[in-house]
Amino acid sequence: MNFSKRRSTYSIFNLPGSCGVAVLFLSFFSCLPEPLELKSIPELKPQIVVASQIVPEVGLVVFLTRTFGALDASENSDPEMLLNQIAINDAVVILSGPGGADTLELIENGFYGGLAISLLEGERYDLLVKSVSLGEVTASAEVQSRVLFDNVEAELYFKEYDDTLAHISYSLNEPEEDNWYMVNLQSVERESLLDNIINPREHTYLFYDSIFNGENYVDQFLVFRRDYQPGDTIAVSLSNIGKAYYDFIQLRMDNRFNFIEFISEPVNYPTNVVGGRGFFNLYVPDIRTFVFEEEDFVN
To answer: Which of 38, 137, 228, 252 is the most exposed place for a label (fewest CB within 10 A)?
Structure first.
């Protein structure tokens, strides 16, 4: 069945009654007022954008950038150059919790970390950011309980005339309490772990335990974002993220976010950052790394 449609081109002067239509159009445009010059359009004040990640065996990393206008960057912008322009490096970042307060150190462009900080599951921690140039923001989050893969496998999936996809299968033993999960797949192409953290995930899969609460859960999915080849290295992670962050990521997925949206943080997204944008969260991912090999192909 052919679903293609033939496109026809019409002019208002070729239609029946064209004289009347033409006069109507001319009369309409003749009544339009002269366009007014827009002056004194207020410029939106930049805000602090917060992102955070607990890296196993490394610690908490907080990533700070500032918002920027839609005309300041595009998909053709150089990510490294853009990051240099918007990273916040003049902030004091303090994390407070049951054990007291710790000041995170500036690691590199916009990244702040505290390697010796011990974060306890179920406890609440408060974040305070004081930037010389952009002011102050605060946020609070509870450390989510860590849920581990029971098993996870990554294979290449080949189908004739299609790209080579990534086939991910996994299982987990689900705790009895309510949980919201995020499974991520990301290529590992850089030596710097921080470089990999800031990039949008190649594939994000969300699910929650309304059906299988407290049971063993088995699932699989295909990743279509790129043509994978033997020798490629990927990281697959499982995170118990909590409902608020689940809703935040779901909105991003619905809007098919990209690198620019990831670091600019559109103002219509929900946030738990008081006075700023982004999302401060404290979850510990279970990360597994795979290198695709020739014999990994499945059909």
So the answer is: 38
Domains of the chain: 48-142 (2.60.40), 149-255+285-298 (2.60.40.10)
Task: Name the average pLDDT for the chain.
Answer: 76
Mean pLDDT of 258-271: 58
Of 265, 167, 197, 177, the closest CA to residue 60 belongs to 197
Q: pLDDT (tens digit, 9 = 90+) per residue, 18-68?
A: 343 333 333 333 344 455 555 555 556 889 999 998 887 778 999 999 987
Total-model pTM: 0.74
> Which residues, in sequence order, are CB contacts of 217 under 8 Å at separation 6+?
171, 172, 173, 174, 209
Give the DSSP per-residue string, the chain: -----------GGGSTTHHHHHHHHHHHHHTSPPPPPP--PPPPPP-EEEEEEEETTTEEEEEEEE---TTS--TTS-HHHHHHHHB--SEEEEEEETTEEEEEEEEETTEEEETT----TT-EEEEEEEETTTEEEEEEEEPPPP--EEEEEEEEE--TTSPPEEEEEEEEE--SS--EEEEEEEE---S-HHHHHHSPPSEEEEEE-TTTTTSEEEEEEEE-SS---TT-EEEEEEEE--HHHHHHHHHHHHTT--HHHHHH--TTS---EETSEEE------EEEEEE--GGGEE-
Distance from C-alpha of 179 to C-alpha of 120, rounded to nearest angstrom: 18
